[in-house]
Amino acid sequence: MKYLSGLRFGWGRRLPMILQTQTTECGLASLAMVANFWGHDVDLLTLRHRFSTSLKGATLGYVMVMANRLGFASRALRLELDELDQLRCPCILHWDMNHFVVLKKVSGRRITIHDPAQGVRELSFEEASKHFTGVALELAPSANFQRVSERKSISIGSLIGSVFGLKSALAQVLLLSVALEVFGLLTPFYMQWVMDQVLVSADYDLLTLLSIGFLMVVVFRSAITALRSWVVTWFSSLLSVQWTTNVFAHLLKLPMDYFEKRHIGDIVSRFGSLGTIQETLTTRFVSTLLDGVMAVATLAMLFVYSGTLTWLVLGLFAAYGIIRWIAYRPFRQANEDQIVFAAKQQSQMLETIRGVQAIKLGNKQESRVASYANAVVDTTNKNVAVQRLSISFSTVHDVIASAGRIALIWLAARQVLQGEFSAGMLISFVTFADQFTGRASGLIDAWIDFRMLRLHTERLADIVLTEPEQHIEAKVAAPAELATSLEIQNVSFRYSETEPWVLNECSLRVEAGESVAIVGPSGQGKTTLVKLILGLLEPELGGILVGGVDIRKLGLHAYRDMIGCVMQDDILFAGSIADNIGFFDSEPDQARIEEAGRLAGIHDDIVAMAMGYQTLVGDMGSSLSGGQCQRVLLARALYRKPAILVLDEATSHLDVEREKLINDAIRQMKVTRIIIAHRPETIRSADRVIVLDQGTARSLDANALAGHALAPV
Questions:
Q1: C-alpha span between 464 and 706 (Å, rounded)
Q2: Cβ(141)–Cβ(38) below 8 Å
C-alpha cells in the first residue's frame, strides 16, 4: 500500500510537511520543515514566538537571518530549472515571486516540493517553470547547530483554563461507568450457566431464576446507561459553555496583528477544534481508563479458561496494534491537511460574501465561483485521502480479525470435542475474547486519538497560548485630575526587524483641548501613528504619554475609556442605530444617544426614518449610505463623552457643508482632537497641523498649510 512507503526502519532523515496557518508565514513554515529534517524538532508555534514576522511576509534576507539563528549556514543561489538536481536537498525555493516552498527531491524531469500553502506536490519541469523564480536557498547545519526538541509544551489544563465543576462531573461519570462495566462482566455467564447447568439437568426452576436475575441486571444496566448519558450531556454542556466563553474572551484580548495575519475562516475553524477536544475529554478519557481496567480483567478471565487460546487472542491484538502504528503517520498528515484546507475553503467563502459588491461591479462572479470550487475540490480531495486511509485500514483489520476469530472458534471447538471445554465455556470464552479485543483495541484507538488530538490542541493553542495585549491593567494609580494632553516621545516603530522604520524618533505634543490635524503623503505612517496613539500597536522605542503618564503605566483599559475614535475601516454591528451609537450598553442613555446623534449631524436623518433610532442598520450598516454610516460611527465615538477624540478620515464621505457643521459642533466640545485628514475644510478646523514625512513629524500653521501647501501633502 502507498502509505507503507512512509515507514522508516533505518536512521534516515524524514522531511515533514508543515502547513502555514498565517497568510505570511510560508518562509517560517519552510524553515521549520528543513530544521526538523536535520533534527531540530521545532513547531510553528515556537518559531512564531521566537521570530517576529511582518504583515507583508518575510524576505529571503530575513529567512536567512532566521536560519542563521537556528544554527544553519545558508547560501542563496540563482540558477536555471534544469540545475535543480545540483542543489543539496532539502532546500528552499522562491516561488511565484511572493512565496517559499521546500524542494524535497528531483527525479528526472519532475520535482517533489513541500508547499506550506498546499501540501506535498509533484510537478513536471514545465509546471514548475511557471512558478520558480530562479532563486534557491541551500541550508546546512553549521558548528552552532543543535539537534534539540524545542516544541512548545501544550497541556490540556492550559487550554481549558478555569472551568467550574470539572472534577466532580468527571468523578460522577467515572463512578457510573465502573458500575456499568461490572454488569457487563456478568453477561457472558448467563449463556454458560444455561448451557452447562440448565440444559444438562433440565432444571426449569434454575432457568427461571437465572433469567429473572439477569433480567434485573439488564434493567440496572439500562438505568445506569441512561443516567451516565445524562451526566455526560450535562458535563459536556457545562464544559462547552465555560470553555468556549473563556477562549472567546481570550481571543478578544489578543493584539491587533494577530487578526491581521490570519484569515477569518482560519480563526473560526479553530473554534471547531473545541468540540473535538471536548468530546475526547468528556467521553474518551473515562472510557480509556475503563478500557484499561476491563482489558486486564477480561484477560485474566481468558487465562482462567485456556492459556493456549489466550495467546492467540493476544496475537490478534498485537496485529491490530501494528496496523494502527503503520497507519498513524499518514493518517495524521491527511487529517491535518483536511483541517487546514477546510479552513481555507471557509475563508474563501467569507471573503467572497464580504466583498460581494466589488465582485458584482467587476463582473468577477465566475472567477470567484471557480476559485471557491477549486477550494472545495482541494478540501474534498483531502477528505477522500482520509477516507481512503480509513477504508484501507478497516479492510486489513477486518480480514485479520475475522480470520483470527474463525481460527479461535475452530481451536476452541476442537477442545470441546476433546472434552477439555464445555459448550457453555466455549461461548463464554469467545464472548470474553471479543470483550478483551474490543477493550484492548479501544486502548490503542484512544492512544491514537490522543496523539491525533495534538492537531486540534495546536490549532487551539494558537489562540489560547498567544500572549494578550500588553499593559492592559494599570501599573500606577491615575491622578484624580488627569490632564488630556498627549505627547509622543521619540517613538520609533517598524512592523518587523527587516523592514524600514515607519516612524523614526517621532515626537509631537498635543495640548489639552487642542485640535491637531495630521497630514502627509500616503504611506508615511499616519494610520500607524494613530494605532500607536490608541495602543493598538506598541512602539519599539519611545513612549506615549497622556497627562504626563505613560499609557503603559496608566493601563490600556483605563486609557481607552478616555478615548473616542473613528477609524477608516470601522463597521456597524447588527442591531438598531440606537444600539450602535450606544455600542450595545446594558443600560443605554437615550437622551445621550440623541445628543451624540445631533453632534454627529445624523439626528435629522434618523428621525425621518420610519422606526427612528430603532431602525436596523443591516449587515455592517448595509441599509445606510456611506455618509450616514460615518456619522453613526462618529456619534458612537461622541456617545462615550471622550476626553480625547481620534478621527481617521472620519468625514471623507460627507459633503463640504455638512462636514463644516460637524467640525464646528465638535470644536465646541473642548476635547483634545487628533484628526487624520486630506480635505482642506477638515484641516482648517484644526488649531495646528502636523506633517508626517519620512517617519518624522513637523508642525505647521493650519491656515498657512491650507492656503498653499496642501497639494504636496
A1: 49
A2: yes
Residue 405 neighbours by CB distance under 10 Å:
16
DSSP state of 4: G
Quote the cell numbers at residue 73: 549556514
CA–CA distance, 122 with 111 (Å, rounded to integer):
6
The number of angstroms, rounded, from the C-alpha of 255 to the middle of its chain's C-alpha atoms is: 15
Amino acid at the residue 597: G
pTM exceeds 0.85: no
Q: Given the C-alpha cell 526538523, which residue does it identify?
A: 36
Q: Can you tell me the distance from the alpha carbon of 526 to that of 676, in angstroms, rounded to the nearest whole number?
A: 7
User: pLDDT tens digit string along 377-421?
Assistant: 888 888 888 888 888 877 887 888 788 778 888 887 887 777 777
Cα 380 to Cα 268: distance, rounded to the nearest angstrom: 19
List beta partners, residue 424. Answer: none
363 burial (CB, 10 Å; 0-12 / 13-18 / 19+) is exposed
Residue 280 CA to residue 287 CA, distance in Å, equals 10
Rounded-to-5 percentages of helix, strand, coil across the chain: 60, 15, 30
Q: Supply 324's cell numbers.
A: 494502527
- Give pLDDT, residue 459: 77
Of 26, 506, 565, 629, catalytic: 26
Nearest to 520 by CA among 677, 377, 667: 677
264-279 and 204-251 helices, crossing angle to 10°: 150
58, 24 contact by CB (below 8 A): yes
Peptide bond into 90 cis (omega under 30): yes
Element at 690 (helix H, strand E)? strand 688-693
User: Is residue 26 flagged as an active site residue?
Assistant: yes
Inter-residue contact 258 to 45 (CB < 8 Å): no
Single-letter code of the amino acid located at 653: H
Q: Which three cell numbers stand for residue 315?
A: 496475537
